[in-house]
Sequence to fold (215 residues):
Amino acid sequence: MYKKLLLFALFTVILTGWHNSVLANFIQYSNESSWQAAAGTTVLEDFESYSVGDTFSSLPALGVGFTELSGGGLPNIYRHPADVTPYGRNHLGNFPNGINSINRWADTTMFVLSGYNITAVGFWNGDGQADTLFASAYDANGVHLGDIGAFKGTFAGFISDVAISRVVFDGNTGDGWNHLDGLQTNASVPIPGAVWLLSSGIASIVGIRLRRKKK
Fold:
């Protein structure tokens, strides 16, 4: 019986890995409404409730965190002088140390918080100096899943069949001091497929054994 259980567990893990590799797909969107409809339940942060200069190590409602920028400090709130996006003038910027050379061209790296599952991310390019802000998505093994790009004042989003681990917003955009707005994810805290299948299998085996004992 225990050998059968072990074989079932091994088969479940292999099957899940094969399933993910076969279904791996990365779909790009340039229309926010279309992306939201396809992504399911999403959470949006417009940054309007924060003050200029506030920095972020994480946004738990979105299931994401941020690594320190290459020049030091964390992504911060920048207030743009114009209404570039539909979500107000407060944006998430890559220059917490001010407009100087320290973080100019620095990438903004966003990672998925432990316990969360994210397969869809969307954002608006709040600036870009008439340029395109690119974002690259990676899975837990560091495999590059795909890229999306939003021109100044436009939206970009993606949906992946494989859960993402991090997204890197390219700092080599416009004048190098970049900021985005309307950040959105479909963060959830699901039971991993392999765990669910394994639990179901164990429950089935236990149920069979109990029925046999009753007989």
In short: Confidence is low (pLDDT under 50) at residues 2-23, 193-199.
